[in-house]
Amino acid sequence: MVRDPEPKRDFVHITDMVDAYIKGGEYQGDFDIFNIGYGKSYSVKEIIEKIISIYGSNIKVAYEGERRKNEIMDCYADTAKARATLDWRPLISIDEGLQMMVGNP
Predict the structure, then answer these.
(1) Residues 27, 29, 30, 33, CA torsion sign
(2) What is the Cα–Cα distance from 88 to 78, expressed in whole angstroms?
(3) How does DSSP assign the chain, residue by residue?
(4) Residue 39, pLDDT score
(5) pTM, 2 dp
(6) Residue 73 in contact with residue 9, Cβ under 8 Å?
(7) Which of 11, 10, 3 is nearest to 97 (CA)?
(8) Contact at 8 Å (CB) between 86 and 20?
(9) Burial class (CB within 10 angstroms; exposed 0-12, middle 13-18, buried 19+) of 23
(10) Mean pLDDT over all residues of the chain?
(11) Nearest 10 degrees: CA dihedral of 44, 12, 41, 99?
């Protein structure tokens, strides 16, 4: 049971995150802050639909439709600064990451 499948978040693959940490650790500039993410948001519903599609399943997921108070409905990272300063960019898309997760690279 999923309460509210509509809020969207930015998901980044762990491999890309580790690469960002390494590049951040090698950064020789003054103290700085970088946003790390894929730069695109997906809802829990979209992620569930992608996983169901990968498995070729027809499972039905129940949604309560209950929204949390003050929920932010869409959130994604602006990675322009990390791209320009660290020469970092995410390489693994949500679809590729989910395929890897379920063992279908």
Answers:
(1) negative
(2) 12
(3) -BS----EEE---HHHHHHHHHHHHH--SSS-----S-S-EEEHHHHHHHHHHHHT------B--PPPTT---B-----HHHHHHH-----S-HHHHHHHHTT--
(4) 95
(5) 0.84
(6) no
(7) 11
(8) yes
(9) middle
(10) 92
(11) -60
- 8 Å CB contact between 33 and 100: no
Residue type at 46?
E
Q: Which residues contact 61 (CB under 8 A, 6 or more apart)?
A: 2, 5, 48, 52
Residue 105: its pLDDT value, please?
A: 55
83/79 Cα distance (integer angstroms): 6
The residue with tokens 């960002």 is 20
**CA atoms within 13 Å, Cβ hemisphere of 105:** 2
More confident residue, 14 or 3: 14
